[in-house]
Structure to design on (246 residues):
């Protein structure tokens, strides 16, 4: 029975979440076209609405740990769920996601993502995608100095405890722009799993952990982000499993 209810909660919460996206997206569009400040405000309002829906329908709460970065930095995060996107978008003051190109053609999401300066990248195009990403950030507007560039080093969502290669894109950004890099672990896949309607109750966490200063060589940087992000994420997931056994 609990198994069935978790799926029913997921389908109901997803319906409300996507309906909210449509309603708030349409209402906020005229304001957002006038000013990026309004675009960010409506995105954050949408995130808060999603958190409320998840709390009421699926008994999922959200928590952010660690010091939230401000100003122009790189943020490298584990990616397990749409939920960790919502959480980063809510807690980071001026986020700019490196996102897969297909999303720009998604109604509402694509418009708002481009409006706040997210950079679309075509998967499977190797150095061409990397060069395009660098060019986009090089030629971005003057307010880019306030942005937190968010990249998922594994390039896609993963299942809890899944082992997947860390791609070099994060390292290219780090070396090119010589910015501090903030690392983020998460356990969101334990509550909102990839490719599933199942929703498990509990506390979904993103954790800002280590900060890597500019100057590391590429190999050391890639080793450091993988070690730190995986360690943080595994600890958060172990914490969930421990609480479930109580």
């Amino acid at each position: 029975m609990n198994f069935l209810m978790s799926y029913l909660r997921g389908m109901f919460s997803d319906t409300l979440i996507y309906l909210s996206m449509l309603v708030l997206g349409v209402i906020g569009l005229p304001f957002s076209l006038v000013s990026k400040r309004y675009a960010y405000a409506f995105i954050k309002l949408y995130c808060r609405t999603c958190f409320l829906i998840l709390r009421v329908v699926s008994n999922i709460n959200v928590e952010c740990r660690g010091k939230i970065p401000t100003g122009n930095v790189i943020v490298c995060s584990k990616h397990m769920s749409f939920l960790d996107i919502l959480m980063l978008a809510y807690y980071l003051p001026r986020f700019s996601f490196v996102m897969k190109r297909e999303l720009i053609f998604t109604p509402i999401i694509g418009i708002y993502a481009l409006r706040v300066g997210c950079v679309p990248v075509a998967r499977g195009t190797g150095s061409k995608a990397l060069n395009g990403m660098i060019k986009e950030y090089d030629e971005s507007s003057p307010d880019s100095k306030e942005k937190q560039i968010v990249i998922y080093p594994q390039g896609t969502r993963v299942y809890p405890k899944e082992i997947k290669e860390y791609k070099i894109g994060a390292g290219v950004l780090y070396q090119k722009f010589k910015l501090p890099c903030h690392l983020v672990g998460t356990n969101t896949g334990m509550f909102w799993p990839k490719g599933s309607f199942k929703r498990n109750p509990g506390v979904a966490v993103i954790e800002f952990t280590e900060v890597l200063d500019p100057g590391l060589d590429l190999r050391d940087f890639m080793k450091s982000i993988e070690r730190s992000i995986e360690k943080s994420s595994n600890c958060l997931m172990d914490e969930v499993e421990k609480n479930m056994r109580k």
About this structure: Residues 60-245 form a domain with the Glycerol-3-phosphate (1)-acyltransferase fold (CATH 3.40.1130.10). The longest strand covers residues 202-212. Strands lie at 60-65, 73-77, 95-100, 119-121, 148-151, 181-186, 202-212.
